[in-house]
Design a protein that fits this description.
four-stranded antiparallel beta sheet; ATPgrasp_TupA; Glycosyl transferase; five-stranded antiparallel beta sheet; 10 helices; transferase activity; about 20% strand; about 300 residues; transferase
Amino acid sequence: MELFHLIKCGIKFIFDSKYRFVYLSGKGVYNKIADDEYLKKKFYAKMAYKLDLSNPKTFNEKMQWLKLYDRNLDYVKMVDKYEVKEYVASVIGKKYIIPTIAYWDNIDDIDWNSLPNKFVLKVTHDSGGIIICKDKNCFDVNKAVHILKKSIKRDYYMLHREWPYKNVPRRVIAEKYMSEKNSDNLTDYKFMCFNGICKCIFTCTDRYSKDGLKVTFYDTKWNILPFERHYKSRKEPEKKPDRLDEMIRLAEILSKDIPFVRVDFYLINNEIFFGEMTFYPGSGFEEFTPFKWDEILGSWISLPKINL
């Protein structure tokens, strides 16, 4: 089966120029291409329609435009998983911040013995690569080090040209492990804010189920919206979170004066905790079904006036 898959991928690599570009871009082959040219090529390869930077209309097009032209230097600390905590605490309060246990500039400096029985590890400049330890007695340190070394080398900026990540210091942080009283499963509430106004929310659920990850979009009254983005959605809505309105208010405070940003919160034992701020969900390379919602969400973003 694995050999068949390799043969199939090889044939696709030879005959499908779009697939070939996406694959090689992930290997760093096009790192020296200018950001605008790179994004145009990758956008067409991933989205199957041409990127119009002079008159962007869809959500995905505007994500690329914002990468290139919205260069607010504050975004650098907002995507830094260590620095963003201090920033968010200064805006909405320290009580919403998941405690940091320690941080290290070098993976080899991690003092594994000093860490509690449960903890979470992250690198500060990357997306993903989270390591969760629920019990140190069965925690594989060597595997964790392997994952961290791979993550810390990853140039997330070059992969999708998300410029705020370019100058984030590469560090490792350990956070307090957070869980519900009767469950280890946390729901991540993601608030899509357009020019400081939350217009829709989505959740990621069923990540480890047989049917796979579900990404479900809601309006601010917790009604399921009639579209999907790359992943299937739930057929029935989840329970409306008790503190939804407060999370919306906090997301709008944090997104003030920003053309677009997604603000994530957890609701743990009915307490709100900040997750992260994301400026380019899916890096602007995830399709909408039906397509018109790519245009609808795009119409919600008012791009700043700049001289190109």
